[in-house]
Amino acid sequence: MKDLTVYRRSLSFFILLCLLVLSVPIVKAHGGGTPQLTNTEVGPYWISVWTQPDPPQVGELHLTAALAEPGVLSASLKEAGPPILNALIEVQLRSLDRPGEIISAIASHESAVNKLFYEADLDVPHSGRWEATLLVSGPDGGSGTVSFELEVVEGSTINMSWLLIGALVVFLAAVIWMMRGVFTSNPPAQTQIS
Fold it and tell me: I need a surface site. Which of 21, 76, 113, 121 has the fewest CB within 10 A?
C-alpha cells in the first residue's frame, strides 16, 4: 500500500508541474518582456517599451508600452510621472532588409492584462533587421515618434507544449505499468507459527 501512495504522490506532483510549465507561455504573453526603451522622450511624454519573445522571433511579436507624463530627472534617476491612459499608439515594424515592407498595429488597453499598459501583437513574416516605430498621439493633443531596432531570428522548431505532453504520456505509461505490478503481484506467503 505504501508503494501505491508513493506512485499517487509522484503522479500528482508531475501533473501539477506539467500544468504549471504548460501555462507559462499563456501567462507571459501579456505585459513585460525585454526592455527596448526606458522612460524615453516621445513628444511631451515619456515612454517605456518591452517586447516578447527574447530574442524576437519570426511569428508573433508581443509589444507592451507604458506612456507617462515626464517625471523626475536627475543625474542618477529618471522616474516617470503619472500614466497617460487615453492616447493612441500606432506601432509600425519596417523591414530594414526588404525596403517597403511595413507591418502595423494599434497598441491598446483592451488586450492588456494591466490596463495601465498599451499592448499589440504583430506577425513578423521573416527574420532580419527591423525598425519598430511608435507614433504617439496623446489625449491633450501632444504627439511624438520614437524608434528602435530589432534583430528578428528564425523561430524555434521545437514546440515545448508538445514535448511536455509527450513526457507526461511516457511518465503516465511508466506509472501505470509499475502500478499494474503492485495490484497483480501475489502477496508474500505467510508462515504459520504453531
Answer: 76
d(CA 123, CA 58): 8
- Cα separation, 88 vs 118, in Å, equals 9
According to the model, what pLDDT value does residue 26 have? 44
Give the model confidence (pLDDT) of 175-190 as tens digits: 777 766 655 555 556 6
147 grid coordinates: 524608434
The H-or-E segment that residue 44 falls in is none
Q: pLDDT tens across 58-100, in order? A: 999 999 999 999 887 766 777 888 999 999 999 999 999 999 9
Q: 31-152 — its CATH code?
A: 2.60.40.2480
Phi first, then psi: give them for residue 32, nearest 5 degrees: 70, -160
C-alpha cell of residue 140: 491633450
Please tell me the distance from the alpha carbon of residue 95 to that of residue 102, in angstroms, as a whole number: 6
Closest listed residue to residue 134, CA positions, set 61, 43, 54, 52: 43
User: Mean pLDDT score of the chain, rounded to an integer?
Assistant: 82
Question: Which residues are CB-neighbours of 6 under 8 A, at least 6 positions away?
Answer: none
Q: State which amino acid sits at residue 143.
A: S
Grid cell listed for 64: 507592451
Rounded to a whole number, what is the distance in angstroms from the first to the last CA of the chain?
28
C-beta of residue 40 within 8 angstroms of C-beta of residue 46? yes
**pTM above threshold 0.90:** no
